Amino acid sequence: MASLSADTQAAEPALPAVCYQLNIRQWSQRQPYEPVWRAMQKFTDERDADTPDELWLLQHEPVFTQGQAGKAEHVLFPGDIPVVPVDRGGQVTYHGPGQLMAYLLLDIKRRKLGTRSLVNKIERVVIDTLAHWNIEAHVRDGMPGVYVADAKIASLGLRVRRGRTYHGMAFNLAMDLSPFQRINPCGYQDMAMTQLRDHAPQAQWDEVVKQVLTHLQTQLGYTECELVDHTDYV
After folding, report:
1. Full residue range of the structural domain in which residue 62 is found
2. What is the CATH number of the domain that holds 190?
3. Does the global pTM surpass 0.85?
């Protein structure tokens, strides 16, 4: 596995442990964006009150995604990278190899969890993961995501449909950051982007995933996490 080479707000209390299972699907090969997005929609539309929540972990082929509030002027010169309008919140961002995508397909109505609270918990997962490598990270008011100094290291965007979420988090680990220069990331001109490799080159991909899973389980209170087969799932 390739080498990847916190002034923070007070931590929000983790949810109490519940007996809901979290199924984890992890892809080793890079995935095109649109089939994964359509699969998330399908899963969300077809799940019922007893369907376990799921976490999908993967990397995408290069793509710009434009959120529902996205403005065309924030896509500066996409060049050969496709731009896909999607149904999450927020503006335009970039996904590509070396970026960990964590898609959260959760029944927040069943969990009695508000969207803002969920965003706070996801941000805390990233902050606590970065702390493992003694990296101070923080959030900004009105600007969802996680930052190291003045640069953004993780972006968040969710869609809630009938009390169930999809989309999720993009965590920059060891990637080519230059495509971000072709857009105004998240709608902000001259937004600086960073990645874990620039701060902790010794970090390994598998260890990052382990830390994310550990802190996600803590924040969301799952007592059972199971790695499940994803063959032909997307």
Report:
1. 3-227
2. 3.30.930.10
3. yes
